[in-house]
Amino acid sequence: MIEMPPSRKAEIEVFEVSKDTSIAKIRPVPDYQQTLNTLLSESTNASNIIPSLEKPPENRSKDFEAFAENSPKIMKILADLATAYDMNKNKKAIVTGDIAANLIWDSSKENIFTVVGDFDLDGDGNIEPYGKEKVKTLVEKWGGKTRDDVSVDTDFVVLGQPPKVLQKPTFEEMQIDPEAMNKYEASLKKSELYKEIQSQAQAFSMPVFNTERFLYFTGCKSQINKP
Fold it and tell me: Mind listing the domains of the chain with CATH numbers?
């Protein structure tokens, strides 16, 4: 029995871009089960190609070409099946209560970002000491503005990882480090601010970016390791 992946979402395809606007359309993703049934009707050996959907794209393509045996029709079905499989595997279905944001770019408007949290910009698993400041710099280089709170003027919230709260120092630790209590209280305030902005963003239905989405959205992904 061939198991069907989870429910799917649609795609938004941008097909015309001008200086100030772009035109997009909602493009239905091929239905996995229907596409699979079509493949089964064309080939009784269709179940043999299903494991290839788990392979990297380059290996998957080689398997598809060998299976299709130069048949454009079979290749088209396999391509649709792969698209449906990938969408279903990587995205959850839209359900009641989901928020859909229509992000409209206006070249004459300065977008305002609220940046909060800790950031691992290079993906090495370590929090960068000045990650928040680096994100703010990237926003400004991209043409936006930043602020430390959420207001009606805020366009986007960039949410890093939740700040860690230090353990409350003991009397002995404060004797060794007179700043230990100040550091603890600062970490506590930082954590509270993070939770407050996260809650406000949700309450106001503001678009929220994690680190990776922000870098791709602003086109900064390729520049993050540059001076």
Answer: 11-90 (no CATH), 112-223 (3.40.50.10190)
